[in-house]
Design goal:
Length: about 575
Amino acid sequence: MFINKNLIGFAGNYKKKLLFVSFLQALQTLTLSAISLLTAFIVKRLIRNFEATVFDDLWSIFVAIFSLVILRFAISKYASVQALKCSVGIKRNLRTRLQKKIFVLGPAYTGKHRTGGIVSTIWSKVEWLNDYYAKYVPSAISAIINTIIIFAILILIDPIVAITCLLFSAAVLVCPIAFYQIMKDKGFKEASASAKYYSDCLDGIQGIVTLKSFNSNDKQREKINNQGEILRKTIMQHLSITFLENLTLEFFARLGAAATVVVGIVRALNGNMEIENLVYILFLSTAWLNPMSAMISAWHKGYRGATGAEKISDMLKQDTSISLFNKFEENIDNLSYLINNDNNRNLDVSFIDVNFFYNKKEKQVLKNISFNIPNGTTLAIVGPSGSGKSTIANLLCGFYRTDTGSIKVGDKILNEENVLSIQNQISAVWQENYLFYGTCYDNILMGNPNATHEEVINATKRANIHNFIMNLENGYDTVVGERGVRLSSGEKQRISIARAFLKDTPLIIFDEATSALDRRNEIAIQNSLNKLIAGKTTLVIAHRLETIKNAEQILVLRDGFIEGTGTHKELLGKSNFYQKLMSIQV
Ligand SMILES: Nc1ncnc2c1ncn2[C@@H]1O[C@H](COP(=O)(O)OP(=O)(O)O)[C@@H](O)[C@H]1O
Ligand SMILES: [Mg+2]
C-alpha cells in the first residue's frame, strides 16, 4: 500500500531514477536531522558551560551546520528537478503504452467504451500519477529511513524513549490500513464520476448540431450539470475522508513527538537518564515529526495515484485477443517491416461457415455465413438495415474475430499473423468516413503515404473532387476541420473514394460508399469506380440497383443469415424477399 505494485511497474526503465530521487529526498531529510542533532549538541554545550570562549571550541560545528544548510538547499533543488523529470518521463511512456493498446484493441474495444472515459484514463488518470512519483514515493521512503535512523540514535540515548517514538511511528504507518478500503471506494467513485462527466461534455460538444436542431441544449446542459454535481459530491466525500485520515495521522504524529519528550522528562526526573540529554530528545522529536508530516500530506496524492493506476492497469490488461491485431502490440511503431508483400495476386475471398456475436449476451449477428468471391469478381450484398452487411466487411478487415468459422483470402486463413499483410491489400470506403483534422492533401495521402503529388491529383480527379478542392480558399492545403466538419457528406465521401483510388489495392470493399452522393456526382464518378474495381476482387454493400445488377454474384442477407445467392436475374426469379427489396429500391 505504501508502494503500489502497479505504480512501480509503470515506472519501467525509470525505476532506478525513481530510487535515485527517493535517495536524494532521504539525504535531504537526513541533512535536516543532522542539523538538528548538531544544534542540539551546541545547545547542550551552552547549557553546561556558557562562556564566550565556548565559541572557540565550537566553530567547526558552526561551519558544519552552515555547510549542511547549503548542501540541503542544493540537494532539494536538484531533487525536485529530477523528480519532475522522472514523473514526466513515466507519464509519457505510460501514455504511449495506452495509445498502443487502444490501437491494437481497435474497434472491438472502442465500440464498447465511451471515448470520454478512454481519454480521461489516458489524460487525467495518468496525470494523477504525477504527485505519486514526484512527491509521495520520495517523501514516504525518506520518512521511513529517517525514522529508522532517529530510532537508532534514540536507543543510544535511552531505549524507553526510543520505543515510545517507534510505537507512534508504527501507529502513523499502520493507521492508513484502517482507511484503505473506504479511501479506495471514494477514489473509485471520483474516478468514475470524472470519466462520466468528461464523456457527457464530449457527447454534448460532438452532438451540438443535433442538440440545436432538436432544441435540446437545455436537456443536455442539465444532464451535464447533474453529472457535474455528482462529481462535486464524490470529490467532497473523497476529500472529507482524506481530511479525517490526515487529521488522525497528524494527531498520532504530533502526539508521538510530544510523548517522546514527556517520556524523556519522566525518565530524566526519575534519574534514568542524564537531564542534559533532553535537549537531544527535543530536537530529534522535531526532526522525526517534520518528514512524517510531509509524508502524511502526500498521502492523498499517493491514494489518488493508486486509484488512477487501477484504471490504467485495467486498460493495459485488456485482453487483446478480441482483436486480430494482438501480435503487433510491441511493434506498433514500426509495422511496415511486418507487412509481407508477397504479391499474392490470387485474391479469392471466402467466408467459411462464419458465426459472429458482437456480444455473447445479445443476438447472434451472423449465422453460418459461407460464400466465395472468385479472384477479380464482384460480390454485392443486399439486405435490410441491421441484417449484418457491414459486419461482414468489418470481419474481412480483421477488426473483430469470428466466433466460429474462418475467412480465407487467397490461400491464407485470415489470422493474427497475416492480418496486416492482408489489410494492406484492402481499400475500404465506408458509409461514414473519418476525416482527420488537417489538410485535404494529407487526408487523401493517408491512402498511400508514398504517393507522388501527381498520383494524388490523379486520384482526386477520378473521384470527381479535384475541381472542388481547387476552388477552396487554400486549395489542397485547406484544413478540413475536425472530422471534416467544413465539408458536406458527399464531399467527404469523395475524398474517401480518392483515398481508395490512391491506395489502389487488389481487394476492394465499398460499404454503401456512394450513399451520400447526389445522383449527378454518383454518375460522374461511377465510371471511375467501374475502372477501379475492374479485374479486382470486390465486396460491394450496395444500396443502388445499378451497382448490384452488374455484380457476378449477389448475396441476400436477412437477419444475419443468407436468404439467397445468385445473379440479379436469378434472384428476381427465385426470391420473393429479393423482389420485395428491389421493389422498395425502384
Ligand atoms: N459495435 C457493435 N456492437 C454491438 N452490436 C453491433 C455493433 N455494430 C453493429 N451491431 C449490431 O449488429 C447488427 C448488424 O449490424 P450491421 O452489420 O451494421 O448491419 P447493416 O450494415 O446490415 O445495416 C445490428 O443489429 C447492429 O445493431
Ligand atoms: Mg451497414
